[in-house]
Design brief:
The complex is a heterodimer of chains A (197) and B (390). Chain A has a domain at 6-54 and 86-169: 2-Layer Sandwich (Beta Polymerase, domain 2). The relative contact order of chain A is 0.14. Chain A has helices at 27-36, 129-138, 181-190, and strands at 6-9, 19-22, 44-53, 56-68, 71-83, 86-95, 100-108, 117-119, 142-144. Chain A contains three helices and nine strands. In chain A, strand 6 and strand 7 form a beta hairpin. Chain A has a five-stranded mixed sheet with strand order 1-2-7-6-3, covered by helices on one side. Chain A has a two-stranded antiparallel sheet with strand order 4-5. In chain A, strands 8-9 form a two-stranded parallel ribbon. Chain A has 197 residues and is an alpha/beta fold. By secondary structure, chain B is α+β, with helices and mostly antiparallel strands. In chain B, a hairpin with a 2-residue loop joins strand 2 and strand 3. The longest helix of chain B is centred in the N-terminal third of the chain and has 29 residues, at 114-142. Chain B is globular, with a radius of gyration of 22 Å. The chains are: A alpha/beta (197), B alpha+beta (390).
């Protein structure tokens, strides 16, 4: 029996809800407990979202007390930590029976390239069906156990994941009679100035 | 290796039904309905498999109006995403604005002045009125009552759109609400006009109902058709009138008391059977409750500022954090999920579209029904493709 790893993720904003980060292996069991426990009864899965976190250095400011020439001073120190790239799926759970909520459940993939598998919670909440399909389509998270994992919005031949932060949109410049600013720059690339005859 | 290669084939295999001896029982017919079918309320397609006239399988296909609203909003400032929200559910731009403004207010901890709260309630309930009226017109059209009911509905809608135009300058793309209030104040003449329209609306509803509620054809086409059970409705995250027609008492105006809804006296109509007729009746009754709220709001609206003077719109940078805000839109729970990193544009901008999620159970409602009923069932869900595809 694997050990469930649970973290509570803080949220600094005034009315923000803290959330619960679960490891992928025990996510399904935790979600089933949240749904079936008579005191929680989170029978309504309102919102399912993907988030892309590319690899980055995260700067956090920490206040520190330092003795400078015998006087205690408070200084701010910036700590840089390397955040490994991953995809995150967030579930917002409410209870229709007991009218409370939300409980925010977060699942993380190992990385953004080849380990993007997560358990699907659609068998517990049908409401996640289309939303998980959308995340599969736009972020590339593969949901294991989803009954019908197909693309939702993009067409079949499309390659890439448009909602990821490093997605580059195709160069679909259209001719404009009076280009300006950014459009002018793009126009110069597409229509090099005609040489006088 | 991309994930695309691992996807199952897009269309389901059509397998003919077999008898006990393993011989085929006749042919199934696969019909692609849409994306330009007039009754699909936009560019929506259904892959339907028919056994005679009966629906055996139905898969909705989306994406014809997909413009990646969420990606666009992640690249622009908080304020410039406001007009984009108008285009989500283009019938109800006022409630879309409110949902977005409410979420950002929650994120940044902004207070909304009393008068602005009243104006927002008035706008939201007017939106609910015109949305439900038009929906009834549309779905009667789906049943074959071509033109006439819809024209009556649109006549009333136009009066409400005149009110919106007077206050925001646009009939449909209102772009009216701001973080911490509303864009412009309403004057006394506008309020008098709104009172008159609200006062007359009950009479129109009486007329509308006199034609419809006891109508023999409407009863025959809607009662017992497209039944959605209470358990499935909850499990499939169905919200709005569709959920309440299945008998679940869950209205965010009563649950969350967002804005100032806690102050008004109104009831939440509930259905009993979860069929199309209940959905029709729940909407009619909801409009009558909306009229009650409107009368109270138009009577009690106080004088005062309509915008939080401290609210900063340009160069607005909320502190880092994340928030999920939701309101009861005319179609169901409209939610926004925003992650801020302290920059001028949101890191993650997510819309929880009620129309899309309400379609999850479309197949369950249509199975075993006639193809003509599938159209009416789709009409009774109340979708707008601007919101489904985003």
């Amino acid at each position: 029996m694997p050990v469930t790893k649970l973290d509570i993720v803080p949220n600094d904003c005034p009315a923000g809800e803290r959330s619960l980060r679960v490891d992928a292996v025990s996510a399904f069991a935790v979600a089933r407990f949240l749904r079936d426990d008579p005191q929680l009864k989170l029978d309504y899965c309102s919102n399912v979202t993907g988030i892309d976190w590319p690899q980055a250095t995260v700067k956090t400011k920490v206040k520190k007390k330092v003795l400078v020439a015998g006087v205690e001073k408070e200084i701010e120190e910036t700590i840089e930590t390397l955040r490994s790239g991953h995809l995150e799926v967030v579930y917002h759970l409410y209870s229709m029976a007991l009218k409370h909520g939300p409980v925010v459940l977060r699942l993380c993939t190992e990385n953004r390239a080849d380990h993007t598998r997560l358990p699907s919670l659609t068998p517990l909440w049908r409401g996640a069906e289309f939303q998980e399909r959308e995340i599969f389509d736009l972020y590339g998270v593969i949901f294991e156990g989803h009954p019908d994992l197909r693309r939702l919005l993009m067409w079949d031949e499309f390659v890439g994941f448009p909602m990821r932060k490093d997605y580059v949109a195709p160069d679909d410049f259209e001719y404009e009679p009076t280009p300006h600013d950014k459009v002018l720059e793009a126009a110069k690339k597409h229509y090099p100035a005609e040489e006088p005859a | 290796m991309s994930a695309v290669a691992e996807m199952p084939p897009k269309n389901f295999a059509v397998t003919p039904r077999l008898n006990a001896a393993g011989e085929p029982l006749g042919e199934l017919l696969e019909v692609s309905m849409g994306p330009h079918h007039p009754s699909t309320h936009g560019v929506f397609r259904m892959d339907v498999v028919l056994d005679g006239e009966q629906v055996v399988k139905l898969k909705p296909v989306f994406g014809y109006l997909h413009r990646n609203h969420e990606k666009i909003a992640e690249g622009i400032s908080y304020l410039s995403a406001m007009p984009y929200t108008d285009r989500l559910d283009y019938f109800c731009s006022m409630t879309n604005n409110w949902a977005y403004a409410l979420t950002i207010e929650k994120l940044a901890g902004l207070a909304v002045p009393e008068r602005a709260e009243f104006i927002r309630v008035i706008m939201a309930e007017l939106t609910r009125l015109q949305n439900h009226t038009c929906l009834i017109g549309f779905f009667l059209q789906d049943m074959g009552a071509l033109g006439t009911p819809m024209m009556y509905a649109f006549r009333e809608r136009e009066k409400i759109l005149d009110l919106f135009e007077a206050v925001s300058g646009a009939r449909m793309m209102c772009n009216y609400m701001r973080f911490g209030g509303v864009r412009v104040d309403v004057d006394e003449a506008w309020l008098a006009h709104a009172r008159k329209i609200t006062g007359d609306y009950g009479k129109f509803l009486d007329e509308f109902e006199a034609f419809l509620t006891q109508n023999e054809i409407l009863l025959a086409r809607t009662q017992g058709v497209g039944v959605l059970s209470r358990e499935l409705a909850i499990n499939a995250s169905v919200t709005g009138p569709l959920l309440r027609a299945s008998g679940v008492n869950y209205d965010l105006r009563k649950v969350d008391h967002y804005g100032i809804y806690g102050r008004f006296d109104f009831q939440v109509p509930l259905g009993d059977h979860g069929d199309i007729y209940d959905r029709y009746l729940v909407r009619v009754l909801e409009m009558r409750e909306s009229l009650k709220i409107l009368q109270q709001a138009l009577r009690d609206i106080p004088a005062g500022p309509f915008m939080d003077p401290k609210a900063k719109l340009r160069g607005f940078r909320p502190k880092a954090g994340e928030v999920y805000g939701r309101i009861e839109g005319p179609k169901g729970e409209l939610g926004f999920y925003i992650i801020s990193e302290g920059s001028p544009n949101p890191y993650r901008f997510r819309v929880r579209p009620p129309s899309l999620i309400n379609l999850t159970i479309l197949e369950d409602m249509c199975l075993g029904q006639k193809i003509a009923d599938a159209i009416v069932i789709l009409g009774s869900v109340d979708i707008v493709l601007g919101e489904v595809d985003r």
